[in-house]
Amino acid sequence: MTIINRRNTLLLGLATGAAWALPARAQTKTKVRVALDWTPNTNHIGLYVAREKGFYAQAGLDVEILPYGDTSAGALISNGVADFGVSGAIGFFTQRAAGADLKAVYAVVQTETGRLVFNDDRQDIQRPRDLDGKTYGGFGSNWENALISTIIRNDGGKGTFETVTLGTSAYEALANGAVDFTLEVYTWEGVKAELEGRKQRAFRYADFGVPDQHTTFLASSDATLKAKPEAAKAFVQATQRGYAFAVENSEEAAAILVEANKDMLTDPALITASLKALVDGHYLARPDGTVGEIDAAKTNAMGAFLFSSGILRDGNGEPLKAQPDFADYYTNAFHAGA
């Protein structure tokens, strides 16, 4: 499998103005609709860069980034409303297990961005087992309970804690001491806390027996990939080009994202700092510069964890009786050089 990294970006024209290595196309551009998993943020940076720098147009595509709404990207994709979409990994796995027509085609992030976080002044919390009996401000998913209880038990605790479902207000509750701990995406909420001078400490999931994962995918459907293989290839490769450009030109990429979403992104400093964290922490690109490639071992390990935890359920809400073949959940076939 050919991957994209810093050694061949110049050859492929990923981070430069060089011609993109795609076949010549007719002037009529193929329409592609892309759904977001949340309001625009730095996880979406490659999409906006590819659109605004003309990478999609050069690939013969007219890409529309749909406004975020109440319907999940997975539902829009599987029902044919969107051709591609940004999907959080847990939502992707659970929707696919329940029968949704979804297939991951690109790993937006290469390693886990989430962490279990608490205020720095909590001297009574030194290791995960200290969380037994404490109050967690959460978001109401089965994944959270499996994740946190696993982390605590693997540190020698019982894995018991109280949960208060708060959604995004959990971060305010943590700051004012109303809850003892929560989960956050380091490259967004964590960076925001740093900018605001709120000192935190955190536990990394993988340090306590939870598999590392690609926390965010770009997904499509088997129906779309089979019906429009050339458009799919063009879209994935131009998107790779957008993310590779963002890694190599983070300040320009941050400015592009802000300019494209002026009404929603009113804190440019957060965007710049978040993208810097994504780049410096090798989230968007691995240390060798690889962008987008879905790691088979990583994806299979997380799928197995979700299955064994009873999180993967069928269309009737019943736990899956047999572990799926997770190799069918994703493909790297549309990447450059594949």
From TrEMBL:
The record ties this protein, via InterPro entries, to: NMT1/THI5 (IPR027939), SsuA/THI5 (IPR015168)
Q: Which organism is it from?
A: Tianweitania populi
Keywords annotated in UniProt: Iron, Metal-binding, Pyridoxal phosphate, Signal, Thiamine biosynthesis, Transferase
Which family is it part of?
Belongs to the NMT1/THI5 family.
Reaction it catalyzes = N(6)-(pyridoxal phosphate)-L-lysyl-[4-amino-5-hydroxymethyl-2-methylpyrimidine phosphate synthase] + L-histidyl-[4-amino-5-hydroxymethyl-2-methylpyrimidine phosphate synthase] + 2 Fe(3+) + 4 H2O = L-lysyl-[4-amino-5-hydroxymethyl-2-methylpyrimidine phosphate synthase] + (2S)-2-amino-5-hydroxy-4-oxopentanoyl-[4-amino-5-hydroxymethyl-2-methylpyrimidine phosphate synthase] + 4-amino-2-methyl-5-(phosphooxymethyl)pyrimidine + 3-oxopropanoate + 2 Fe(2+) + 2 H(+)
Q: What is the recorded name of this protein?
A: Thiamine pyrimidine synthase
Its function, per the record, reads:
Responsible for the formation of the pyrimidine heterocycle in the thiamine biosynthesis pathway. Catalyzes the formation of hydroxymethylpyrimidine phosphate (HMP-P) from histidine and pyridoxal phosphate (PLP). The protein uses PLP and the active site histidine to form HMP-P, generating an inactive enzyme. The enzyme can only undergo a single turnover, which suggests it is a suicide enzyme.
**Record keywords: Aminoacyl-tRNA synthetase included?**
no
Annotated GO biological processes are: thiamine biosynthetic process
The superkingdom of the source organism is Bacteria
Which PANTHER family has this protein been placed in?
Answer: 4-AMINO-5-HYDROXYMETHYL-2-METHYLPYRIMIDINE PHOSPHATE SYNTHASE THI11-RELATED
A GO molecular function assigned to this protein is: metal ion binding
Q: In which pathway does it act?
A: Cofactor biosynthesis; thiamine diphosphate biosynthesis
